Amino acid sequence: MVGLSGRGRECPCCRAQWRRFAEFNGRSDSLCLRCGSLERHRALAIHLREADLPGGDDEILHFAPEPSIGRLLARAPGGYVSTDLEPGLAMVAADITALPFEDGRFGLVVCSHVLEHIPDEGAALAELRRVCSAGGRVLVMVPRDPEREDTDEDPSVTDPEERRRRFLQEDHVRLYGLDLEARLGAAGFDVTTTIPAVEEGPERAALLGLRSEDEIFSCRPA
Q1: What is the spatial distance between Cα 84 and Cα 63, in angstroms, rounded to a whole number?
Q2: Does residue 127 lie in a domain region?
Q3: Phi, psi of 113 (to 5 degrees)
Q4: Which of 2, 111, 136, 154 sits a CA distance of 20 to 30 A from 144?
């Protein structure tokens, strides 16, 4: 950690400053050693700050909670609920395709790097829309290939090596393409796509450790 001390990088999740971020999974300049944030977490933190957290009684639902993001979301006045399929990893153990929450309960739903793991995407998106309030929004982040027109998915692919080759990870069931916004729209959302690295500009993107591939899809019930 001492070797990374400096002022060339700043984490928007925890405000730590570094000469550069640490290496993670073969990517240099990636990991904040204080809060554990990666590029996508920092992009999401910036978006949340700029778009404002819900106020009043609006609750927040956070899937597969990343600690660096969970700490930001838990500050919202309306309340915060985290959920994960695996018991013990969040406040509520739940299946995203059959959520135990009432209709329209949440003013903000954060679902980052989850949908690529879910075989029944349609059921998951229907549940996200159901639990989101009429004036609320669902923030979605997923890996996607900007060179692909159509999402690559094939339920017959179960070999871990083939999944890594086609879908990037052995526990992924699809790799999204440029049709993602249309898929979200078909599930009943109006979608706005933002890229914090582009909006911040090259200099600040480097300072904050952002990548242009980390897109945020803000989905409002249509």
Answers
A1: 6
A2: yes
A3: 55, 50
A4: 136
Structural domain contains residue 20:
no
Domain ranges, residue 190 = 40-221
One DSSP character per residue, 178-193 reads TTHHHHHHHTTEEEEE
Closest CA to 91 of 76, 105, 80: 80
pTM of the model: 0.94
Rounded Cα distance, 45 and 37, in Å = 10
Q: What is the largest CA-CA distance in the chain?
A: 50
Q: How many domains does the chain have?
A: 1
pLDDT tier for residue 1 given thresholds of 50, 70 and 90: low
Long-range contacts of 91-97 (CB under 8 A, 24+ apart): 96/63, 96/124, 96/127, 96/128, 97/123, 97/124, 97/127
Give strand pairing partners of 84: 93
* 93, part of any domain: yes
DSSP calls for 39-104: HHHHHHHHHHHHH----TT-EEEEES--HHHHHHHTTSTT-EEEEESSTTSSSEE-BTTB--S-TT
Whether 195 maps to a domain, the answer reads: yes
Helix (H) / strand (E) containing 200? helix 196-200
Is the Cα dihedral 188, 128, 167, 157 positive or negative?
negative
Q: Which residues pair with 152 in a beta bridge?
A: 175
Residue indicated by tokens 């249509």: 222
Task: Kindly state the percentage of the chain with pLDDT values over 70.
Answer: 98
Q: Is the CB of residue 178 less than 8 Å from the CB of residue 148?
A: yes
Q: How far apart are the first and last CA of the chain?
A: 47
